[in-house]
């Protein structure tokens, strides 16, 4: 399990470097709106030398009310479906673009545990990418991967896996 977590951390570094390179080449900027990762995605991007040319900033919207107040997610959507939802991820990504004045918005919302949330299991994650009107949302289900991990390791594995999915989805969107 330690190997799996170490590989996940290494992948985060590789993907962050790739995203920064693609954004630099395209002359685009990025911002994040993060719930379960609480700034980890933005920090991973910022760790790359040259990131200041592309990283505008980010919103840490860990509390549900901040998803509405800071990122502009529909209060009705949050009331009806809760924060772990593909449409919430979509609105968070658009909110990152809008609030930070970026070209690309990345969003991450889900359940890192230790307990399920509003009927969603630990390990369910949604990431969103917003790029000049184009939006993409991806879902991650990690229940099987974390089944034998202790809670602390599982929580970190979920958070870094979410960051990796957001970074790789953004890279794929920039490629197409």
From TrEMBL:
Read off the Pfam families from this record. Answer: CinA
Species, as recorded: Corynebacterium urogenitale
UniProt protein name: Competence-damage inducible protein
The gene that this protein is the product of is cinA
Q: Which InterPro entries match?
A: CinA-like_C, CinA_C
Domain CinA C-terminal: from-to ranges = 14-156
Print the organism lineage.
Bacteria, Bacillati, Actinomycetota, Actinomycetes, Mycobacteriales
